[in-house]
């Protein structure tokens, strides 16, 4: 308890607290720019922290880290262009709500979900970091492969009545993920002699294309239909109220808690990443919605404006931010790529994460932990101010002008990732593919999941088989790898149970 009080005392210094709030505003604004992922937002501010005292610098970085993931939800909801990769699922139901005049409610759900997920994760970090870090150490190549299989199996919950098209989408994603260097041979694959593809298809331009350019094409179709029907020039619907009804909050609490729990668990696992967490949380919320609300009067279809579709991924993605610091601060092992950048921020000030951090720089270590909790408590007022300024200006722009604005943001965002014009072509082609997929009712989610999990799946599989000397039973070994065996068992249930449940009513009929 004395250590926690020391952390609060260090953070309570006026300049340290000021830098934390500055980081929140900066992260929120930068995160709301399409194409700027969490890593870029964090990396941009590391040089600024070099000349600051360690406590102020790290408070700034905590603020940026927490707010960047939340800020990505603003353009995802308003114009269906995720600011960061962590908001890609928020764009579906969030933008659908915005088009129906409930943008304010969708934004409020997103911010509230992020705050709740972040607070729960911060409390876990504050009180349970050392004990939970030992669990993360038990995840090796075998467990990471099983985790990737579990993530892909979660797609089943998103594909009711559309399994074949969903499988096609997942295969497309996994296939694109194989482009570039092979983790086994080290030779490039499927590059067709293009040097820009040697390291694989760049993810940020791909994300910008799949969501941003595709949303741009959707907007152009809307404008064409308006002109065809001789409708007057229109703007996006008004933002509406930001207040959440009590009944809706009671309905969303189970989603917030489950999303935060998933984010906490995934965030602590090295290499799992934020995208894995949001997909699992989204799938879990979809199953719950279909069980309790689907088909009832006044309820939208999943993916067409359901509040749970916004609450689940947003609570999960912000829960990952603090929980990813559990293995980093306790053991020096980053939970994801953004927390790995935190090692650089610490190194700039002569600190090394791990057990020695608490003995040599105890006040800074506990200040970082406490800063995550305070940052999430301050998130709502900061987000409210940013939403009112950014969203209001976007909603006042006519659709015809918005097309140009979105196009500029998309292609600048794609180009900025490496300053390469090839990235702009990637965004354009990805946007066309996503647009065709939507027209043919092929879901985009499984393709994204395949892209994200493909490299982890392949490298973990190869390394696991090398360690086990080609023994495939290593993945279901309950003695040496009980965590892997458990996840493979759950993955099998995710496939088998829906088939059995669909078969039983037919037999009864």
Automatic annotation (TrEMBL):
Q: Which InterPro entries match?
A: DUF112_TM (IPR002823)
UniProt KW keywords: Membrane, Transmembrane, Transmembrane helix
Question: Which is an annotated Pfam family here?
Answer: TctA
DUF112 domain: which residues? 17-449
State the source organism's domain of life. Bacteria
According to the record, the segments passing through the membrane are 12-36, 56-79, 106-129, 141-159, 166-184, 204-224, 259-282, 364-387, 399-416, 479-504
| PANTHER family in the cross-refs | TRICARBOXYLIC TRANSPORT PROTEIN (PTHR35342)
Q: What is this protein called?
A: C4-dicarboxylate ABC transporter
């Amino acid at each position: 308890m004395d250590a926690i009080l020391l952390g609060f005392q260090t953070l309570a210094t006026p300049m340290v607290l000021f830098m934390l709030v500055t980081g929140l505003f900066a992260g929120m604004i930068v995160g709301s720019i399409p194409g700027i992922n969490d890593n870029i937002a964090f990396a941009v501010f590391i040089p600024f922290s070099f000349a600051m005292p360690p406590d102020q610098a790290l408070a700034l970085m905590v603020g940026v880290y927490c707010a960047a993931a939340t800020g990505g939800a603003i353009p995802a909801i308003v114009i269906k262009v995720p600011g960061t990769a962590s908001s890609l699922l928020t764009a579906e139901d969030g933008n659908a709500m915005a088009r129906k005049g409930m943008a304010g409610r969708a934004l409020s759900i997103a911010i509230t979900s992020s705050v709740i997920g972040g607070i729960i994760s911060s409390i876990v970090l504050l009180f349970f970091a050392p004990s939970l870090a030992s669990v993360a150490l038990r995840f090796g190549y075998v467990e990471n492969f099983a985790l990737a299989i579990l993530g892909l199996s979660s797609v089943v919950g998103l594909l009711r009545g559309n399994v074949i098209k969903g499988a096609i989408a997942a295969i497309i994603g996994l296939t694109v993920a194989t482009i570039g260097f092979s983790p086994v041979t080290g030779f490039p694959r499927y590059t067709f002699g293009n040097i820009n593809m040697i390291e694989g298809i760049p993810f940020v331009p791909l994300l910008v294309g799949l969501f941003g350019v595709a949303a741009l094409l959707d907007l152009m179709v809307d404008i064409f239909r308006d002109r065809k029907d001789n409708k007057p020039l229109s703007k996006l619907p008004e933002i509406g109220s930001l207040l959440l009804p009590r009944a809706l909050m009671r309905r969303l609490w189970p989603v917030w808690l489950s999303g935060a729990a998933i984010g906490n668990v995934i965030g602590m696992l090295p290499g799992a990443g934020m995208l894995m967490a949001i997909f699992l949380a989204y799938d879990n919320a979809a199953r719950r919605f279909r069980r309790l609300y689907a088909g009832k009067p006044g309820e939208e279809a999943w993916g067409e404006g359901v509040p749970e579709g916004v609450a689940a991924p947003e609570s999960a993605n912000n829960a990952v931010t603090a929980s990813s610091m559990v293995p980093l601060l306790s053991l020096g092992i980053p939970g994801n790529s953004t927390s790995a950048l935190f090692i650089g921020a610490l190194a700039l000030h002569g600190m090394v994460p791990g057990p020695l951090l608490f003995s040599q720089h105890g006040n800074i270590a506990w200040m970082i932990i406490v800063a995550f909790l305070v940052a999430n408590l301050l998130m709502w007022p900061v987000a409210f101010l940013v939403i009112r300024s950014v969203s209001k200006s976007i909603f006042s722009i006519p659709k015809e002008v918005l097309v140009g604005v979105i196009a500029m943001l998309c292609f600048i965002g794609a180009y900025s990732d490496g300053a390469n014009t090839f990235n702009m072509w990637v965004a354009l082609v990805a946007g066309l593919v996503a647009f065709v997929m939507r027209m043919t009712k092929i879901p985009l989610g499984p393709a994204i999941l395949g892209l994200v999990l493909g490299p982890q799946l392949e490298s973990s599989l190869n390394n696991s088989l090398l360690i086990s000397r080609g023994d495939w039973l290593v993945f279901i070994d309950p003695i040496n790898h009980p965590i892997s065996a458990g996840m493979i068992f759950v993955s099998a249930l995710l496939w088998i149970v829906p088939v059995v449940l669909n078969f039983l009513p037919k037999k009864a009929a």
